[in-house]
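Human: We require from you a standard protein entry with sequence in single-letter code and fold as C-alpha cells, and nothing else.

Assistant:
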Amino acid sequence: NIVISGGAGQHPLVRQILADTCGIPVITTQCCEPVLLGSAILGAVAGNIAPSVCEAMQQFTHVDKYYYPQERYQSLHHRRYEAYKQLQHTAKLLRD
C-alpha cells in the first residue's frame, strides 16, 4: 500500500493515477493535517499515552478511502514507462 497526504496527493485524480501506475492501492486518512498528527503520535509515545509509535498510529489514525488500481489503465502506464526508460537511456548515450 501507499499512504498519501498533502500537496498534490490531496487530489483524487493524483491518487488514482498513482494507484494505477504503481499497481497497488493508495490509502488516504481522515486527517487533514498529517504532519501535526505525526507530531501528536510521537508526543503520545513520549508522554506514555501510547506504548509505541505503531500502537499510537493505530489509535490515532483512521483510513478515509482506498484507491485501487484499475486494470484497464495498467498496460497504458506500462507502455509509457517503457518509453520513459528508452528516452532516459538515449539521453545518457547522448551525454556520454
Remarks:
- The radius of gyration is 19 Å.
- The first helix runs from residue 12 to 22.
- The chain has four helices and three strands.
